[in-house]
Amino acid sequence: MKSYKGILKSVVLVTGCWLLVSGCLLPVAGYRLMAQKLPKNIYYSSDSSRLITGGKASKGFYDEAKLNSIYLEFSDPNYWDSLLVNHDKGLDIKANLKYQDKIYEGVGIRFKGMTSYMMTGDSKKKSFNISIDYTTDSLKLKGYKTLNLNNAAEDPSMIREVLYLNLIRDYVPAAKASFVKLFLNGEYWGIYSNIQQLNSEFLKEWFLSDNGSRWRAFNDANGPMGGPGGMMGGFPGGPMGMPRGGSDGGPFGQMDSTLRQKIDSMFRASGPMGPGRMNPEMRTQMDSLFKANGIEMGGPGGMGMPGMPGGRRMGENRDSMRGGPGGMDGLGGRGGMFGGGQSGLNYLGEDTATYQKSYTLKSSEQEEPWSDLVKTTQILNTIPPAQLEDSLSVYLDIDRTLWMLACEIVFVDDDGYVFKGGMDYYIYYEPESGRLVPLEYDGNSTFPERNPGWDPFMNEDNENYPLMNRILKVPSLRQRYLAHLRTIIQNSLNPERLNSRMEAYTSLIDSSLRADTKKLYSTSEFEEAIPQLKEFADSRKSYLMKNEEVNKTGVTIGAVTHQNKNGEGSVSVQVTISQTEELREMNLWYSTGVVGRFYKIPMFDKGRNGDSTAGDGIYGAMLPAFAKDTIMRYYIEAIAAGKAGTATYSPAGAEHEVYVVR
């Protein structure tokens, strides 16, 4: 038996056995639950029939329905200059923080971000990172040791990031998000997005422990990323990739301070810039400046296509870092991708040192964390498509991966995996299941009103994006992805639900935002932004549903029941199907324990397994025998007849929402 330190449920691992079911040799190992206490985001439905991960409204410090205030007091009269100087160094300065009448002394403050920092020019509306435990290791604010206050640099509505993160928490692990009012030395600094850090506190809210390995894609030690190409209307990749901690920072990381100052001055002279605000005149000035210093600009990024990141020296493996076409208009050329071909779960060989150049290991209690990453990338990138699903499911949580990709696609997240390929996502190795889980990070570039036309299979033909390029080549996984996409479209692009949420947010922050003298956008731009967001949601739904593969209707799954005698032994599962003539196959997916891989067994309408009469539209199957006090999770999959093999699931949220026998 093996116990896990810090686990939120008392668990004993039961020795496994194997059982022959419907001609398949299947494992029957599982978690036997002794004392039941789940992480915050794993819970039972009100009738205890389903086990659900995600979908809970945040309370406390990240309550999206409340607008609280944070007060920072700096003893240094020149604190602003110190923050400016420390930005590139990544160093904090001390301050005291007050929240709800409690004082937190000696917290660490620094500006955060690169694009959001540079785009704001001389504006004082910067994003802040706050380390509550800067001088006192045990100090936390409402259970959290790191705070992120974001300035919504690309968002006149101020609500996109909070909206996106709270929407996708229904489907995948994602940060909590709310709004706060910020005060610096008594002066009102305006409205900020309050975004949870993806650290150990986050892991313990979503997983059975935080004992696994946590990576951020892209190596922080190699310097900040370069400027995004398309987000600023064709800005070249790389010029902001400055050194940090003595490391070489990006293709232009070794530029001298004089050139850096000239670039900074040009940004400041142009004022705050939103999407597409770099005009041709400034583009020409930047081009001339770089050429005068012997630097060739990357190609324009097109509509939102980012430029080449910092983190690699000029000429190092340049071809492998190229992105695909430069955005939606295909103008990007060699603008490149952020870590594309390197930190996008690409296979880089067996040498773990190679991966350490492309990923930052944030935390781990595993003996050989890098080996877990290498093995997963090897399987993902080298196993033939026909064998990929079975092989990869041992090392990667495929279903959760597909939900994450679908979220990014639906909401057009050009700060995520499907667009950048190698940045702005995290990876967690879950020790209880032995699998990697990709984690969504950074949602401030979603809902772009300029571009509701992302293809649902974006970058599936680009081998630098193996989660798209490799996984979507497997027909069964492609259909699973499409089913998840339809669920998100139906639930989260529902105008009634979405519009009411937008209106609640804007009502919450409206008066405080109008009083914000440091805001990056005018009040009129704020007022115009909300209708544009609503229009985007309508346009996005319309665009996606015009896609031939998306706009398919699968078999409707009827009532699902199971019979469990005496809480031990085999359990029969039955499901009612009225469209039997449209059905190719029915499958029962099951797993023992709260987490872990699911296994598939077929369901039949042959008058057995609780199905009393053959051909009555009731399909049945027997779950493998399991010991008392063991949780058995399951869900139903219906595959429609026809070439596509359209998949539907019950519950529709499988695998983060499943039926449970206990």
Structure explained in plain terms:
- This protein is an alpha+beta fold.
- It has two domains: 10-37 and 553-661, Immunoglobulins (Immunoglobulin-like, Sandwich); 65-218 and 339-551, no CATH class.
- It is built from 15 helices and 25 strands.
- The protein has helices at residues 79-86, 115-118, 160-168, 200-206, 257-270, 280-292, 352-356, 369-382, 385-392, 398-410, 417-420, 466-469, 475-492, 495-514, 523-545, and strands spanning 10-13, 18-21, 24-27, 31-35, 42-44, 50-53, 67-73, 93-99, 102-111, 128-131, 146-150, 177-184, 187-196, 213-217, 359-364, 425-430, 435-440, 560-564, 569-576, 583-592, 599-603, 618-626, 632-640, 647-650, 657-661.
- The strands form six sheets. Strands 5, 6, 20, 21, 23, 24 and 25 form a seven-stranded antiparallel β-sheet that branches.
- Helix 10 crosses helix 13 (475-492) and helix 14 (495-514) runs antiparallel to helix 15 (523-545).
Which structural category fits the helices and strands? alpha+beta
Largest sheet: 7 strands, antiparallel
The chain-level mean pLDDT equals 82
Shape: globular
Task: Please give the share of residues in helix.
Answer: 10-25%
Q: Can you tell me the residue ranges where pLDDT is under 50 for at least 5 consecutive residues?
A: 1-35, 223-257, 271-280, 295-337
